[in-house]
Amino acid sequence: MSKVVQALPLDSSESKKRPYNRGDHANVCKKRMTNNKKSIEMDGDGVDLSVVFKAITQQWRVFFACLATALVLAVLACMLIPPRWSASATVRIGVIPSYGPAELPFGGPIEPVSEVEARVRLPDFAKGVFQEPALQGMTSADIALYRKTVKAVALRGTGLVTLNVAATSQDNARRVMEATVAWLQAAHDKKVQRATQQLRTRLQELNKQVANQQAELIHLKRNLGKEGQANTKKLGYEDLVAQDLIIRLEIELRALEKSRFAIQSLLLPPITYPTELVDQVTVGDKPYFPILRLFVMIAVIAGGMLGALLCLFFYQRRLAGVSSMARPTM
Prior knowledge:
Number of helices: 10
Number of strands: 7
Strand content: 5-15%
Helix content: 55-70%
Oligomer: single chain
Number of domains: 2
Radius of gyration: 46 Å
Structural class: alpha+beta
């Protein structure tokens, strides 16, 4: 009779002594890699934030090292970059004397505000500004900064223009702005002098024309014998022609006198005035650049982003190492 041998379960001590199975370890690693890969898959909007947080948590030393380095560089940059001070002033563009076809009193701006905005950007304007005695000894850095930052902004609906400049110190900013206003006033004064000289020349011509007209009227009236008041019934043809000529000359004389009065009015201060400074030059109490809090903000953002990217890089590199261990060896 055959005996039936029943298989007894292995003892726990015997199961622990079971030999290591490489296939089981590979399966565990593959499963772990699959879960990790799923966690970093793109969901359409970006990387899962939980994965980023997990990577930063595991590599927190790298993250804070990047953040601290960025902050130190930001503070050093603020200390090494030369400060820039801004200055501003408001000027009123003067009115230049001029007259139209009818030679009526008329005053126009010495220079349109749009041309003022373009003038201050010209290299010749900057060259003239730094020829002022008050700016002798300025460094090339100040000159380059002036050419880069000088600006004129027109206030709409007015004849006012705001000038803005920058310099490497508070005192230099004030001196540069005062020299800019002075040079602009000097340029406008030259235009006013030319226009005034043209008006004076025109006024002299009108004075001569008025004198000639008056002399001719006196001569014609003497020839008539009654100063233009004679009775037309007793006058001959030549006398009538002379009287008609007198009337025309009197009309022309009144027009010339009107033009002369208009030009004389143009030369009066109420109609024309020079370019002048409306308020005092204003210089900031603190440099407008560099700003420490702005640099710190940029450093926090840049350092945080760089640290997060490095943390993800090391995290993925670690996962790649786990996957290489999961490959079975032949």
